[in-house]
């Protein structure tokens, strides 16, 4: 049986670093990723999508947020979508899953809130397939949420496909040690031909016949090389390892970079490097940049113009941590202030900065930068 495996859509996710415009685009692209999954299913003639939890980012989403992914899936009525709760959207009494059912659902969308086997019908060869869902009814469930899969009955010879959300093999995003912890050999214990997992945001195997799909739209700077943006096309085979292929559906690329700057040439080199890192479409890249070193007032102004206001304006987002970027100031830098109270304040800050007072150093650099911008020097 062929199907798509996805998870961790986290619809409604907030991005605290983002301005309102960027936040809106990032949230919309999480919905667009669902549409890309539907289009991929059509292209591959795959009639089934398994969503392994964390469909929503919170347990009580707003009404609009609750309905948005349903409307995306509704557009692909010939495809059956099977969803389970995750640790971000657990099945709570009167919670979002019950709210969703009260609204009514299209016939192609199936919410699984009970740990009981469900027939998926027969594959093209006539072999019957069964879905074995594990259900989280709280954010941090002690014990293994997949333990019930061992005893779920299915007809002899049927494909057994597990669907679960949690941390297998001792890794995952759940901070509570021992919560939602899935046995690394669950697929063997439960006689599964495939175990579709959610929680880890990168596509990666989690043991024999077990995979994390990752989030279809990358959502953080710390995700590394396997940080999401894909969906898995799976061919499950009775008694044999599945055939798994990753297909990219995400739009945005998230990067971290660091630089140590002491001169204008190094600022120019950083500009070029960030553009290369972002790729052909800078508007699809988000970069978190950490800078250290020491810059004169002139070079700090160059940094602001070329990095923050230059390439930074073309990127979807540029976060800059410049807490380790110090001022390297001389008489020429202070001279732009002339004489008077500003000059006196700058000299006082310079003395404190020389004594390793980072706040004073930052204040001095900012004061001189503003003075340069005002004077046009």
From TrEMBL:
Superkingdom of the source species: Bacteria
Keyword flag Repeat: no
Residues annotated as domain Calcineurin-like phosphoesterase: 1-97
Gene Ontology molecular function, alphabetical: exonuclease activity
Record keyword Lipid metabolism present: no
Region (Disordered): 206-225
Keywords associated with the record: Exonuclease, Hydrolase, Nuclease
Gene3D superfamilies, per the entry: 3.60.21.10
Any single Pfam family the record assigns to this protein: Metallophos
PANTHER family, sorted: COMPONENT OF ATP-DEPENDENT DSDNA EXONUCLEASE, NUCLEASE SBCCD SUBUNIT D
This protein's name: DNA repair exonuclease
Species of the source: Endosaccharibacter trunci
């Amino acid at each position: 049986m062929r199907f798509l495996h996805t998870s961790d859509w986290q619809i409604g996710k907030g991005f605290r670093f983002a301005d309102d415009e960027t936040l809106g685009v990032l949230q919309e692209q999480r919905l667009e990723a669902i549409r890309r999954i539907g289009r991929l299913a059509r292209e591959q003639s795959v009639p089934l999508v398994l969503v392994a939890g964390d469909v929503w980012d919170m347990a009580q989403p707003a009404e609009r947020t609750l309905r948005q992914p349903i409307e995306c899936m509704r557009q692909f009525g010939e495809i059956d979508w099977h969803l389970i709760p995750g640790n971000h959207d657990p099945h709570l009494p009167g919670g979002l899953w019950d709210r969703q059912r009260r609204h009514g659902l299209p016939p192609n969308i199936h919410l699984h809130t009970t740990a009981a086997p469900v027939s998926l019908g027969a594959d093209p060869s006539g072999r019957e397939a069964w879905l074995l869902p594990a259900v989280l009814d709280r954010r941090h469930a002690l014990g293994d949420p997949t333990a019930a899969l061992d005893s779920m009955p299915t007809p002899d010879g049927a494909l057994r496909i597990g669907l679960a959300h949690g941390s297998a093999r001792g890794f995952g995003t759940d901070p509570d040690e021992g919560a939602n912890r899935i046995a690394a050999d669950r697929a063997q214990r439960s006689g599964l031909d495939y175990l579709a997992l959610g929680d880890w945001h990168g596509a990666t195997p989690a043991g024999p016949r077990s995979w994390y799909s990752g989030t279809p739209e990358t959502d953080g700077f710390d995700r590394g090389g396997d940080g999401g943006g894909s969906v898995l096309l799976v061919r499950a085979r009775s008694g044999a390892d599945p055939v798994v292929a990753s297909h990219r559906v995400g739009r945005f690329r998230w990067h971290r970079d660091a630089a140590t700057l002491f001169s204008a040439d190094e600022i120019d080199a950083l500009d070029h490097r960030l553009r290369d890192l972002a790729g052909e479409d800078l508007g699809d890249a988000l970069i978190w940049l950490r800078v250290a070193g020491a810059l004169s007032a002139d070079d700090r102004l160059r940094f602001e113009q070329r990095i923050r206001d230059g390439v930074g304006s073309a990127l979807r987002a540029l976060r800059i941590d410049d807490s380790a970027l110090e001022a390297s100031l001389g008489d020429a830098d202070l001279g732009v202030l002339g004489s008077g109270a500003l000059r006196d304040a700058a000299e006082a800050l310079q003395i404190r900065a020389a004594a390793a007072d980072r706040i004073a150093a930052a204040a001095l650099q900012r004061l001189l930068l503003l003075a340069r911008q005002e004077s046009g020097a």
